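quick one
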Amino acid sequence: MERELAWDSYNEKEINKIFDFSEKYRAFLTNCKTERECVAWFVEQAEAAGFVSLEEAMEKQQKLKVGDRIYVNRMNKWFAAFVIGKKSLEAGMNILGAHIDSPRIDLKQNPFYEESGLAMLDTHYYGGIKKYQWVTIPMALHGVVAKTDGTVVNISIGDKPEDPVFGISDLLVHLATEQMDKKAAKVIDGESMNVMIGSMPLKNATEKEAVKANILQIIEKTYQIKEEDFLSAEIEVVPAGEARDYGFDRSMIMGYGHDDRVCAYPSFVALSEMKEPEVTSVCLLVDKEEIGNEGASSARSLYFENAVAELLNLSGDYSDLLLRRALQNSKMISSDVSAAFDPNYPTVLETKNAAYFGKGLVFNKYSGVRGKRDSNDTNAEYIGEIRRIMEENHVFYQTAELGKVDQGGGGTIARIFARYGMQVIDGGIPVINMHAPWEIISKADLYEAYKGYIAFLKEA
Ligand code: MN
Ligand code: MN
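structure w/ manganese (II) ion:
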């Protein structure tokens, strides 16, 4: 079915609104390049919007009532926010879920070394990347170093205009005869993705590795941390620079980490605009999606279930049975990015079932590889309900698969929450350049997703 572009339906006022919304998103994307930076930002926004932490509510033994606003921060990498609805929790929740981790290059635990007068950092990449895309571009270092005395030092260098940048080198074309014959997967060797961080030796140094010693001295002076402190650190090497408007018409945004912050951001904004919803509204933002949803801060952890148990307890009627009902009676949009049609690579998508820029929020009945394996295949009846909600609220939406049959594929967090028996559908925003250092989205799709999320949360 050929649908018109959402842009065709907007008047000038609406276009201004979309551009204003997109500008706020662009600032968020520029400032939040790690899951930790996202959680810190969402906590700050939540507190400003009247949410209190679950711990504070428990401390005060707050008796939950309609309109109460609670947020949960776990490990500074996992975040959930709730707006209590008119119906009991037992009746279920309307949940917007997304992930806030993105593909990147992580430092190893023992990263520092010196080779031929150059100081280097050893890395281990995170998530599915085409490694050749991540070399020769300016990179920044973002993360934390946890010291043995319990203090945690934040590091963020490479993104301010006055900062130095870092990067991974690539072989000059003049000497690349052998390299150019390699398969794309082998062009860049994972173990050779080392970051160059210095070339100047320590003055009057006696040690052999004087360049590395100089860097360690600068780091110690700046951050009061020593080389061994990197044993307990999480430092992410990410593309340096701002998210930017894309195209003469500024209708798109290019930035690092749209996957999946482009779904996380409008989910949170939509939730924070709920006042007294019929059903308890939830925004759930998880970590570790890009490496398979394992670990305490991932979708598979019990943090969400535990948080709902605590809310039932604060409502004065916790039981295991009520918890199970609250989860099973819930509905979820598991939001993640979809592959958008790219005119440079038209053959990998099947055009009747592909997502397009400017056609709005995209729903995927299923994902998966090799015959829908490992995917959450959403119930037809629930899709019917989602269609009704979108159509009643004039939200532009489309449906798609991630590529042609047997072309590849991917998974999301949907099936993890479907285990509770709740209705879950994958929905999100189309992306070009997915998992590349700089991904692209359409502002119209971002705005239609936000409208769709509001409509979903308002449902009784
Ligand atoms: Mn994703
Ligand atoms: Mn991804």
